[in-house]
Amino acid sequence: GDARVRGQTGVVSERRGSYPFIDFRLLNNTALSGEVGTKKKVKRLLSFQRYFHASRLLRGIVPQASLYLLDEDYLGQARHMLSKVGMWDFDIFLFDRLTNGNSLVTLLCHLFNAHGLIHHFQLDMVTLHRFFVMVQEDYHSQNPYHNAVHAADVTQAMHCYLREPKLANFLTPSDIMLGLLAAAAHDVDHPGVNQPFLIKTNHHLASLYQNVSVLENHHWRSTIGMLRESRLLAHLPKEVTQDIEQQLGSLILATDINRQNEFLIRLKSHLDNQDLRLEDAQDRHFMLQIALKCADICNPCRVWDLSKQWSERVCEEFYRQGDLEQKFELEISPLCNQQKDTVPSIQIGFMTYIVEPLFERWAQFTGNTPLSENMLNHLRRNKAKWRSLLHKQHSSSRSNDHSGQVTGSQEQTLNEEETP
């Protein structure tokens, strides 16, 4: 069955401790031991908060989104922002504050309504809202980067991409719903550490998914678990829901950064041969995968003030992993050593080897639309600013070992990292 069906397995959230997740040694030991009592204890530790939320939600005790409990001024500002949700300079941090930390739920309710998905799929509004709350709750708010605000940011970017004429002219309601759901849930229950960390600590998720797309598989299975628990799609034919679940998996698994070159090569081939047929569901699905990959790593393409915040957040998450590795006397992962890996050097490498190649191809696909040109311009300006900051760091500290250029080993590291 599913890796995550609440009440049947211990593969639930890793967020219950004071750090990204419960002590990984405890999890590993209990996974290997046959002590039923200890297993039950760990399961309770892992599951209590999730079940607490779910039971309250399913009994209908939790009120409607906190947005409706806000001061009218905040409500008015949030509504005004939603009227401009298709603008690339949308400030998701401000929107999250205006909605009292409910940016993902509020955004999703608005977009599902705006795209006519509620009517088309005959979705129950109360059930839909509860599902969105479940998704938002399953992100770890203590993660500096992989949290519900990141999910909301990716969802807003996906909305912008779905409106690009080259794609929008062919999209079906199913495509749009899948794109928005995958964006919203693509990092759900992220533990705040990357795949190499889970593998080297023999984490139960790494064992479960045999060290392949460990986090992405978990995000997908977690999403399916919540979809089934909420019964949001229970009124649809079984073959339709099964197809939705599989396509969600295909989209979320595409965000694995280890598969970056695979998708780039395929996209380049399609563009060079001009053989994309968006009337074909398979080609549309591939471009939805590319759109989600772009949305997931679009931070360097945002305006500087927003892009800088995201850069600092993702590096803070890296550094926390490095601190955790140091605490347990493990080798500190590349990019996770705050003493050696600076924010500017990490960002310059990420932009050069991961972001630029993908967004240049995306611009080629869209036909260099105003949005694509805008994103590439931001990307180039932001990269120049990071180079300037790196130069200042070198000037102030001649002993700094960083050159501002990403070495071959650093490039390889970037390709092994979980998508920042």
UniProtKB/TrEMBL annotation:
SUPFAM superfamilies: HD-domain/PDEase-like. Pfam families: PDEase_I (PF00233). Residues 390-420 are annotated as: Disordered. GO terms for molecular function: 3',5'-cyclic-AMP phosphodiesterase activity; metal ion binding. Its EC number is 3.1.4.-. AMP binds at residues 146-150, 187, 296, 347. Residues 396-413 have a biased composition (Polar residues). Binds 2 divalent metal cations per subunit. Site 1 may preferentially bind zinc ions, while site 2 has a preference for magnesium and/or manganese ions. Zn(2+) 1 binds at residues 150, 186-187, 296. Keywords: cAMP, Hydrolase, Metal-binding. The keyword Magnesium does not apply. Residues 70-393 form the PDEase domain. Its cofactor is a divalent metal cation. It catalyses: 3',5'-cyclic AMP + H2O = AMP + H(+). GO terms for biological process: signal transduction. The active site is at residue 146. The keyword Hydrolase applies. Zn(2+) 2 binds at residue 187. Pathway: Purine metabolism; 3',5'-cyclic AMP degradation; AMP from 3',5'-cyclic AMP: step 1/1. Belongs to the cyclic nucleotide phosphodiesterase family. PDE7 subfamily. This is Phosphodiesterase. It comes from Pheucticus melanocephalus. The lineage of its organism: Eukaryota, Metazoa, Chordata, Craniata, Vertebrata.
